[in-house]
Amino acid sequence: MPMRTRVGALFAVAATGLALGATLAAPADAAPTTTPKFLSAAQLPPHPSSDWKAGKVTDGVPDELLSCVRETMPGYDSRYRSFTTDLETNAQQLTIVVGSAAKAKALATRLDKDMRSCATRIEQADPEVEATYKSYGKLPVEEGARVHGLHTEASWGATDIHLLSVGRDGRTVTVVQWGQMGDFDDAPVKAFKKTTTTAVAKLY
C-alpha cells in the first residue's frame, strides 16, 4: 500500500466494528442558507519536503474521521475537503451547519467527547491496535476550539499520529484532522493550532 494511502488506515481500521454500535442519535437540520469557507492547501501545517494538494469539497464524512465520529454524524448534513502530499501525510476538514447556535454548541461538545473517547473505542473494535489520546487544550477563536492528539500502533508495527480539532462559529462546527506516520514527537502541534484557528475564523 502506498505510504500516503496507508496513513489513516489504522485510524479508520475500527470503522466497521464501530458501525455495529452506531445509532441515529442526531436529528436532521434544515439546509444551510450560507456556505462555510474551507481551508486552502497553503493553510495546512507545512510539510518539509512536499506541497499540499487540496481535493474538491464533497458531501458526507471522510473515511479518515469515521472511527471517531461515526456515532454522532448520522442525521447531519456535512461537507468535507481532503488534502494530501506526495508522501505519507494527509488531512481533512469537515464542516456541519445546524439550525441554531445552541445546536452547534451541543454538537461541538459531543464531537469533543468523541475525540477524547476515540482511542478506547478503536482498541475495543480491534485488539491488534493500541491507541493513546492526548489533549492539547483550547484555542480562543470565535466560539472556541479544542485540539486533540491520537496515536495508533498496530501489532504488525505500523504507527500513525493524528491531530484533530473541533471548533465553532455561530451555528457552524468544523473538524480538522492531520495525520502521518510517527508518534507524538512528530506532531506539528503549534502549526496545527494555527491551521485550526484559520479554519474556524474562515467559517463566516
Quick overview:
This protein has helices at 3-6, 9-12, 15-19, 63-69, 101-125, 189-201; strands spanning 53-54, 58-59, 78-84, 90-97, 129-139, 145-154, 159-169, 172-181. The chain is α+β, with helices and mostly antiparallel strands.
List the secondary-structure elements in sequence, H or E. HHHEEHEEHEEEEH
Count of separate structural domains: 1
CATH class category: Alpha Beta
The radius of gyration over CA amounts to 16 Å
Shape summary: globular
- Report how far apart the termini are: 39 Å
Largest sheet: 8 strands, antiparallel
CATH fold assignment? Protein Transport Mog1p, Chain A
How much beta, percentage-wise? 25-35%
- Helical/strand content category: alpha+beta
Record field, number of beta strands: 8
- CATH architecture assignment name: 3-Layer(aba) Sandwich
Helix content: 25-40%
Low-confidence stretches: 1-7, 13-32
Count of DSSP-assigned helices = 6
Question: What would the average pLDDT be, to the nearest integer?
Answer: 85
